[in-house]
Amino acid sequence: MPVPRTDPGFARDPLPAMLSWATDPADPPVRRLAADRYLVTDSSLGRRILASTQEPFEATSAPFGAVPGWIPGHPDTRPVLTALGSALDTALTGPRTVATPALSCWPDDASLRYLHRFGSALLPAASPAVFRAVAAALTRSYALDRRPGRAAALRRRFAVSRANAALQGYLLRHRATPGNPFLAALLDRFGDPQTAALALHGALGAVCRAAATALSWTVLLDHGWRPGLAAGTVLPAATPTAPAGDRVREALRLWPVAWMLHRRARTTTELGGLPVRPGDHLLVCTFAMHRSRRVWSDADDYRPERWADPPAGYRDGYLPYGTGPGACVGARFVNAAAAQLLDSLPGLAAPIRLLDERPVLGAIATPPRFQLTTASCDT
Ligand code: HEM
C-alpha cells in the first residue's frame, strides 16, 4: 500500500495538520511520519493494533507505562486494577466539601481540584507534604506542555522525582499500618515501594491530569470556544442544556485527551497491506478518528445533544479510552467525576477569559489556559 508522507513540521506542531486532515473525507488510513513511524487514522486498523499489548504490538504507555514489568491487560495486573476501580468508586462517593484552591487558571486548577477532591481516596491519611509534592509535579507537567524546552523538562523531572520520593515514603509508612486495599494491592504486586510509588503516581496522574483535563475541555467548549480565538477573548457565561455526561462525551470526541495511542511492533507483520518491522512505531490517532465525516455530521462542531441519538456504528471509531485488553479502567470515573463537578459547581458557568490561543497536542491534548475569575495566573 502506498503510504503518504506527512508534512515534516508535524512532529514539532501537529495541531494544524490534525485540524485539516480530520476534516478531509478522503483521509488515507495510514500516513508515514518517519522511516519507522506510522500514523493510523482508520478505525478498524486502529482497533486491530490496540487489541495487542504484547505480540505483535507492544503497549508501552499510560498510565503505568513508567512501571518496570507492567504489561497492560496481563492477568497479573488484575488485582491492582480491581482495587483501583474500587478506590475510584470510593473517590466518587467521598466527602464533597474538601478545601480546594480558588478557581483561577485552568486546566491547572482543575488538576489541583481533582487532587484535593478525589486524590485522597488513593492517598488516605497522606500528609500535606505528599499532596504538595504531587501538586508540584502536576503543575510542572502543564508548564512543560506549554513551553517545551530543556529548562522546563528539567524542572518537571525534578518535581516528578520529588513526588515519587514522597509517595515512596508514604507507601513505606503505609506498609507498617496497612488498611487500604489499593495500596496493599500495589505493594503486593510490586514488592518494593519504589516501583509501587511509580504506579501510584501513574494512577494519580490519570485522575488529576487526564480526568481533570476532560473537565477543563468540557467547561471551555460549553462556553463556545473554537480554534483561532485570540488570547484575551472573553467568552460569555455558558448556558448548556444537554446533560453533563453527554457534554463530557462530546468534549472527548472533539478533543480526546488521549489523542494519540502508541504501540511498538515486536515482530515482522503486516497491517492493511503495509509491511511492519520490529521496532516500528504505530500511532493510533483518535483525534482524526473521532472527526470522521463518514460517521459524524458537523464533525468539527461541539454538539452535545447528538449523544441523545448517536449515529449507528459510532462505537467502532469512538475510542477515547482505547479498546482491547489494555483499555482504560477509569472511563466510568472520568465521566462521573466531571458530571458531578459540572452539576455541583455553578461557578463553572461564569464568563471566561482565554489566556492562550492554542491548545497543545503533546503527551495529552491540553486546552488553552483560561480563567473563570479575576484571580491572577502565573505564566
Ligand atoms: C480523560 C481521562 C482519561 C483518558 C482519556 C484515558 C485514556 C486511556 C486510554 C486511551 C488507555 C489505553 C491506552 C493504550 O491502549 O495504549 C487507558 C488505559 C488505562 N487507564 Fe485511562 N484514561 C483516563 C483516565 C483514567 C483514570 C482516571 C484512571 C484511573 C486511575 C485510568 C486508568 C487507566 C489504566 C489503569 C489503564 C491501563 C490498563 C492496563 O494497563 O491494563 N485512566 N486510559
Automatic annotation (TrEMBL):
Q: Which residues form the signal peptide?
A: none
Matching Pfam families = p450
Under the heading InterPro entries, the entry gives: Cyt_P450, Cyt_P450_B, Cyt_P450_sf, Cytochrome_P450_monoxygenase
GO molecular function, one example? monooxygenase activity
Superkingdom of source: Bacteria
- Origin species, per record, is Actinocatenispora comari
So what family is this one in?
A: Belongs to the cytochrome P450 family.
The name this protein carries in UniProt is Cytochrome P450
The top of its lineage is:
Bacteria, Bacillati, Actinomycetota, Actinomycetes, Micromonosporales
